[in-house]
Write a structure and sequence with these properties.
Blueprint (H helix, E strand, L loop, with lengths): L2 H14 L16 E4 L2 E5 L12 H14 L7 H5 L2 H14 L3 E5 L2 H12 L5 E5 L4 H9 L3 E5 L4 H10 L6 E6 L11 H10 L3 E5 L14 H4 L9 E5 L9 E5 L1 H10 L1 H4 L6 H16 L2 H19 L11 E7 L1 H13 L2 E2 L1 E3 L9 E6 L6 H17 L3
Parallel strand pairs: 2-11, 4-5, 4-6, 6-7, 7-8
Antiparallel strand pairs: 1-2, 3-9, 8-9, 10-13, 12-13
Helix pairs in contact: 2-12, 4-12, 5-6, 5-10, 7-8, 13-15
């Protein structure tokens, strides 16, 4: 067939099924209001949960570090790309997470792939929730271990798999703390108990939980009352609630040193920009000093869900900042997103293969930067577009 024809056919197929993806190019910073094609939009599709992406403290820390350390890190961490801001961020994260060591990565995808392909070997077993993020699923598939998925948040099936599929190798259970497309949380306390019972390690990807959940903002593991011993591998990203970019893996001295020496995704990748690391330190300061942000976000989530119930909107079950509105058909989801767009509301339609067939949705995300009036305005736009098809 040839690569050209194969790609042409694949693109045509995506278009015909309403699954084609396109870029949005903003002309402003992230925030409740953004600029797109010269027009202001209410923004309800950003993961900037605490409203920190354009915060003056982060911007100032970034500028100061860029003046001192430049823009690029220049090399991989293990050559000469590990600068003072990287070390400071690692030390701050060690204190924040209560883990022995922390390793920085340029993205959450890279971090998950690095952990799973380095930690697991042929003969091992890895069990993952069916709705895990693609990076966890891809890491499991490429690890060489026996890879099994269990139904979403189904601890009973996981218990059966752990009891039935013994072997000579080791076992890892990997789950999202908060599921990025459904907004619900994993039953981490139940899963951790099963892991202890079967001498398995638990890995939690808390990209959408850190900064938002828990008494101190440590995330879904804190909210579930779990310790570092309960969760030997913790991964989280900086590009959501913390407002910057990159990711980290936290765990024991042995785990992190093992990844440092063995993880190809760490060894052979240029380190994140030092200014990003410095801005993330500033974000951690705000996270710990301004607890009101988490409370404000929770209040807005509850206000939105109350209003949605009154309007009988088809929201999925979620108490996180991610509030999916189930549509079903991919074309219908795109049409609804388009009607909202014409009203000046920016919400992405999420379609297969990101979500299962027949479960296309609008992924509505709320942030601490939104106001109550903006939540009420969103509800009115949704009511008009869903019940009346208004533009």
């Amino acid at each position: 067939m040839g690569f050209q024809q194969r790609l042409t056919d694949a693109l045509a197929d995506r278009r015909s099924r309403g699954l084609y993806r396109t870029h949005l190019t903003l002309g402003s910073s992230q925030g409740p209001l953004v600029r797109l094609d010269g027009k202001n939009y209410l923004n309800f599709c950003s993961n900037d949960y605490l409203g920190l992406a354009a915060h003056p403290c982060l911007v100032s820390a970034f500028k100061t570090a860029a003046d001192q350390y430049g823009v690029g890190s220049g090399s991989a961490h293990l050559v000469c790309g590990h600068l003072a801001p990287h070390l400071e961020l690692e030390q701050r994260l060690i204190a924040f997470t209560g883990r022995q060591r922390v390793l920085l990565f340029s993205s959450g995808y890279q971090a998950n792939m690095a952990v799973l392909t380095s930690l697991l070997a042929k003969g091992d077993r890895v069990f993952e929730d069916r709705l895990n993020h693609a990076s966890l699923l891809d890491g499991g598939l490429h690890s060489g271990a026996r890879f099994r998925r269990f139904p979403h948040n189904d601890s009973k099936t996981l218990a059966t798999l752990l009891a039935r599929e013994g072997g000579d190798g080791d076992t890892l259970v990997a789950v999202d703390g908060v599921f990025s497309m459904d907004g619900d949380c994993a039953p981490l306390a139940e899963i951790a108990a099963l892991c202890r019972q079967h001498s398995a390690w638990l890995m939690v990807d808390d990209a959408h939980g850190i900064g938002v959940l828990g008494a101190t903002g440590l995330g879904s593991t804190e909210a579930a009352g779990l310790s570092a011993d309960d969760v030997p591998v913790l991964m989280a990203t900086f590009g959501k609630a913390l407002g910057t970019g990159g990711a980290f893996v936290a765990g024991s001295e042995t785990l992190v040193e093992g990844l440092t020496q063995l993880a190809r995704g760490y060894i052979y990748t240029t380190a994140m920009a030092p200014a990003i690391a410095a801005a993330t330190v500033a974000a951690l300061d705000l996270l710990q000093e301004e607890n009101w942000r988490r409370q404000a976000l929770d209040n807005l989530v509850q206000r939105f869900r109350r209003g949605a119930r009154q309007l009988d909107l088809p929201l999925m079950t979620s108490n996180s900042a991610i509030q999916p509105l189930l549509v079903g058909d991919a074309g219908d989801a795109m049409a609804l997103s388009g009607r909202l767009n014409k009203r000046g509301v920016l919400i992405s339609a999420i379609r297969p293969p990101t979500v299962p067939q027949g479960s296309a949705r609008l992924r509505i995300t709320l942030t601490a930067g939104h106001s109550e009036d903006q939540i009420d305005e969103l509800l009115e736009h949704l009511r008009a577009c869903i019940t009346q098809g208004a533009v």
